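cron nightly-structures :: item 1 of 1
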Amino acid sequence: METQTLLFWLSKLVGLAIDLRQPLYLGLIVGIALLWTRWRGIGRAVLTGILALQLITGTVPIGESINVWLEERIPAPAALPERIDGIVVLGGDASNTMLQVRPLSPGGAPMRQVAAADLARRYPQTRIVYSGGSGNPLDPSTTDAAGARILLPALGLDPARVEFEEHSRNTFENARNSFELAKPKSGENWLLVTSAFHMPRALGCFRKAGWNVIPYPVGYRTMPQDADDWSLPRSFDGSLPVIAGALSELIGLTAYYWLGRTDAWFPKL
């Protein structure tokens, strides 16, 4: 197995390990079962630990704080240059499987595609590159580009105007493959469109590839004050995926920096 494929699979396994919902549900079952055995003390300890974790994640804005920090790191541009030569849009925020089965049902918040359609309208002569293969190792044929071909026409953007790159499995390959496809010239102004929380890693990868793009973050998940909001009770099941997603991005930033895929550990403008 080539190194890039091995790292791709490893990243997916790490992502699964970070989401603690299934292990904790299993812990509840085991803890309750142990209460009916002579190991009831272990069962009480397991259940007490799970309850403590629930109280912490239900009151402390852990995931929100990390997401605010990520989203505020690369602010949206106050104004765009008069001349935009190209737009690179990264896939990854829609369910491409659902799009192919259910009409106009992306199964998420596809703001990257919405932004692509809006920018295409504002800059009718500008090149558009949509980069997105399959991030699912068990379904490599269902690509982000295929989903975009279904969704973009509904947003008013003719897919014939878009140059699709559909071999990228992750952000590193997005940058490398998009650069090879677009072949940007020195002095050109290219926008990079991706989700705000993902922009630091994406921008670091594109800069490492030698492409000084203009970040255009979209799809914000938080408000700035969310990092200090201890007032809202958060459900156990709802808070864990938020924390897992935030930690996954931090781990991704760290791994990419160690692997030499980004120009900084935590890229910023």
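cron nightly-structures :: done
The first strand starts at residue 86 and ends at 90.
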